[in-house]
């Protein structure tokens, strides 16, 4: 799957989980850029992404991400 | 050497002059000098523990390099594990060892075995949890791939021991090392901001905290005989005292850092305006809660993620228990953590942990007042010497004497002043927050109002300086 397609699908998940249709994701986007994205909603996003793509991240993978781009890379590598 | 002492003033004048004059053009020289000054500052408080700080710094410096150069993920994991075990083990030994021995002894006695266990005379190094947390975040970030090891042992040592922040925080992250490696020029505006923040910190500590402390102390001395209204007032004043004491110290630490051209992290964001308990912990002791969020809450949250909201609630509860225990080995701290943990869990389970964007003003006021009351109740548990006294406090507080006039042993005027100082502090910070300005910044635009405000602070500090200052509450943690 192309990374741009993954980004689109992840963006749709973000919009649904965080209940904000205005969210636009880019590779460099971080939690600081989206008000609703905090330590509590972070895990809900991960669970939703894992279910959608039918994958399972390791703890170290999740804890190493510093922006959306790195999350997309992890999904693409699965 | 506390900030509000003549010794510190003399120490800092010498540091400031050497730092900005002979060493102005050499960042390396400034860092070596800062490191030596920090070790002197720490050694002056407790020289016997200085070797522990230096050895721990060296161990973690080399561990960081070893983790980054690990040949396999497994090796990196084990090296990080050793570092975490060393850091946590040192903390457990100095902070909690006696507590465990006493608990085991009482457990044995309870089941009829008369254990003859002795507690040891362990002296806790000052600020141990603050510098241990800095060391731990350094190696964990390297293991997670979020940070690189530094090859500048001087900057690393200064990051760990930076004297304004070593005794009571803020707990800066390894990104502080980059600040230390960058060239620093004396910036007049930043220095003025630093002075303002020190003045505001001194006002909060000396005027607000120490004035409240007298009333709080006398109420707690005779809980069994105090009337309900005195205890209610003392509970509110204790919350103000704790905030003024800790945030006042933090303001001074940040201000001193700014005078040296360094920016330490903010630790408070008007916590008395919190919308709910979750919001409170985003505004109170921010560097500790964000540290625990990154290194305890998130890993637990990831492990429990299949449990949905229950997993988040469980991770939040365990995290709050740690916040309580971080303050020390005492059942009251554990109960304080459990109390906040339960409140946090309820918010998560009912989906009320967020702050609504468009809440009406009255909805906001009601939430702020209710959160304030919940926090004040929590601080009573925190302040109590033991749980029976905490229960007695609540029992006395809820008696019919709640509607009587609070005690004022030192005259009505002293009661008015003890209430007016925290009100002035909270009103100033709320006004600054309304204008989205830091209270230590230039909150009054009109020149004569601003200068009048400085004089009010200086005059109030001068007035209370005739009384002896008490210790900073947060040094012990």
3D structure, described in words:
Chain A has a single domain, classed as ACP-like (Non-ribosomal Peptide Synthetase Peptidyl Carrier Protein, Chain A). Chain A has helices at residues 3-17, 39-53, 59-64, 68-77. Helices cover 59% and strands 0% of the residues of chain A. Chain B is mainly alpha-helical and 477 residues long. Helices cover 69% and strands 0% of the residues of chain B. Chain B contains 17 helices and no strands. Chain B is globular. The A-B interface holds A 36, 39-40, 42-44, 46-47, 59-60, 62-64, 66 and B 73, 144-146, 278, 293, 297-299, 301-303, 305-306, 308, 311-312, 316, 348, 353-354.
List the helices and strands and how they pair.
The complex is a heterodimer of chains A (78) and B (477).
Chain A: H1 3-17, H2 39-53, H3 59-64, H4 68-77
Helix pairs in contact in A: 1-2, 1-4
Chain B: H1 6-20, H2 27-46, H3 50-68, H4 73-110, H5 128-144, H6 153-161, H7 176-181, H8 188-221, H9 228-259, H10 277-283, H11 286-303, H12 309-326, H13 331-349, H14 361-383, H15 387-397, H16 412-434, H17 447-464
Helix pairs in contact in B: 1-2, 2-6, 3-4, 3-5, 3-6, 4-5, 8-9, 8-16, 8-17, 9-14, 9-16, 11-12, 12-13, 13-14
Q: State the total count of DSSP E strands of chain B.
A: 0
Q: Per DSSP, what share of the residues of chain A sits in E-state strands of 2 or more residues?
A: under 5%
Shape annotation of chain B:
globular
Beta-strand content bin of chain B: under 5%
Tell me the number of structural domains of chain A. Answer: 1
């Amino acid at each position: 799957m192309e990374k741009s397609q993954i980004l689109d699908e992840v963006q749709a998940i973000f919009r649904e989980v965080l209940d904000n249709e205005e969210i636009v994701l880019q590779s460099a986007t971080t939690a600081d850029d989206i008000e609703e994205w905090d330590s509590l909603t972070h895990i809900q996003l991960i669970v939703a992404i894992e279910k959608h793509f039918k994958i399972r991240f390791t703890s170290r993978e999740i804890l190493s991400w510093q922006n959306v781009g790195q999350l997309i890379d992890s999904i693409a590598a699965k | 050497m506390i900030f509000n002492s003549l010794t510190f003033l003399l120490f800092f004048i010498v540091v400031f002059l050497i730092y900005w004059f002979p060493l102005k053009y050499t960042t390396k020289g400034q860092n070596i000098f800062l490191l030596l000054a920090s070790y002197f500052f720490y050694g002056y408080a407790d020289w016997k523990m200085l070797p522990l700080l230096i050895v721990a710094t060296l161990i973690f410096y080399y561990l960081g390099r070893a983790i980054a150069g690990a040949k396999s993920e497994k090796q990196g994991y084990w090296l990080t594990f050793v570092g975490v075990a060393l850091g946590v083990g040192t903390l457990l030994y100095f902070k909690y060892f006696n507590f465990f021995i006493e608990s085991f002894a009482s457990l044995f006695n309870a089941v009829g075995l008369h254990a003859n266990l002795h507690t040891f005379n362990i002296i806790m190094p000052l600020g141990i949890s603050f510098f241990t947390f800095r060391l731990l975040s350094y190696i964990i970030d390297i293991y997670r791939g979020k940070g690189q090891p530094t090859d500048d042992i001087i900057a690393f040592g200064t990051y760990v021991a930076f004297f304004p922040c070593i005794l009571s925080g803020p707990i800066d992250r390894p990104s502080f090392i980059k600040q230390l490696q960058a060239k620093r020029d004396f910036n007049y505006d930043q220095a003025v901001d630093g002075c303002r923040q020190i003045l505001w910190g001194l006002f909060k500590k000396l005027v607000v905290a120490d004035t409240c402390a007298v009333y709080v102390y006398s109420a707690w001395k005779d809980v069994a005989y105090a009337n309900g209204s005195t205890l209610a007032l003392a509970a509110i004043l204790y919350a103000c005292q704790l905030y003024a004491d800790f945030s006042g110290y933090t303001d001074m630490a940040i201000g001193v850092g700014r005078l040296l051209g360094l920016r330490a992290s903010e630790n408070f964001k008007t916590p008395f305006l919190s919308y709910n308990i979750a919001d409170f912990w985003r505004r109170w002791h921010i560097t500790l809660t964000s540290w625990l969020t990154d290194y305890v809450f998130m890993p637990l949250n990831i492990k429990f993620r299949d449990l949905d909201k229950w997993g988040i609630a469980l991770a939040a509860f365990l995290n709050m228990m740690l916040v309580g225990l971080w303050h020390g080995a005492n059942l009251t701290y554990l109960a304080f953590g459990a109390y906040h943990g339960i409140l946090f869990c309820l918010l998560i389970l009912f989906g009320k942990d967020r702050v609504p964007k468009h809440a009406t003003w009255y909805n906001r006021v009601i939430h702020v007042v209710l959160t304030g009351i919940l926090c004040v109740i929590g601080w009573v548990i925190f302040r109590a010497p033991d749980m029976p006294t905490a229960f007695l406090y609540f029992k006395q507080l809820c008696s019919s004497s709640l509607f009587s006039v609070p005690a004022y042993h030192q005259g009505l005027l002293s009661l008015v002043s003890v209430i007016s100082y925290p009100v002035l502090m909270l009103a100033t910070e709320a006004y600054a927050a309304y204008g989205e300005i830091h209270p230590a910044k230039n909150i009054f635009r009109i020149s004569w109002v601003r200068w009048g405000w400085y004089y009010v602070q200086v005059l109030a500090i001068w007035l209370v300086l005739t009384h002896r200052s008490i210790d900073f509450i947060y040094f012990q943690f």
